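Predict the 3D structure for this chain.
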Amino acid sequence: MTSSFIICTKDRPLDLQSCVKSIAQQTILPQELIVVDASVINITYENKINCENILKNIIKFIYITSKPSLTKQRNIGVDNAKGDIVFFFDDDVILEQDYHEKILHVYQQKSTERLGGVRGTIGNEYPMGLFKIYLLRLFMLTRLSVNEKSRFLRSGHYVFIPKPKEIIGVECMAGGVCSYYRKIFNEFRSDEKLNGYALKEDMDLSYRVSRKYSLYQTPDAILYHYHSKTSRISIEESSTMRVINTYYMFKKNMPQTFINKISFFWSLFGMTIINFTRLITHRDIEHFKGTIKGLIKILTQFFK
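Done. Predicted structure below.
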């Protein structure tokens, strides 16, 4: 099996360097590294030179510039990939040296199944506290949990298991820590209607793939996600986008049954209550404003 690694980046030269260095140190190297760069012009030149200097021809390097759109960048990367397996990484992650090796092991172990993809585990991501887990469970919201099945909820939200004790089946793979057989993209593409920063695009893609193929998470393949503060949208913008894109994904993918619709709007109510509480207790107005803006937009669409 051969592998293509894809990094979609924008205006993060230092983060990108650290990520590429960790790729160059893998116990099993990928066939190629594809960087799809939406940075401003002076940074794109810097990124290309830095990557070439780090890799020193040990890995085939493909560098492509793009307009800023995560889903578009992902599709460009896939269109240029030649490996049997396509890996996606955020530019602010660092891989443990055997990450690639451990993922390939799962592909070999599960080769007789209708396997679609495998994700690793984020080493610096942990389950939420029990009170927060129960609160988010009450409102059917996305959570980092324990002792639950990793699955999509009727509301369109998801239960992540950040620290599984063994290889587990999943339905959602976070975009910066996932891999798929390349042939999957003959049937499924990243949805370019989710443009720009494109929150939830990874959930949309993996939901669709998981309806037809098995997806797995292994605790043995570890990387670290450092959530770079560079080139991020504001909290208010991300809160608005989270509401709108969750609604888009729910309408597009989830069966539109009465109980599912009630579950979705119950989750919106919970999100609003939680962010209103943050406004009162922590004077956190951005989360609340963003949530209200998102609610107004989707309610406007819903009652058209």
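The first helix runs from residue 13 to 24.
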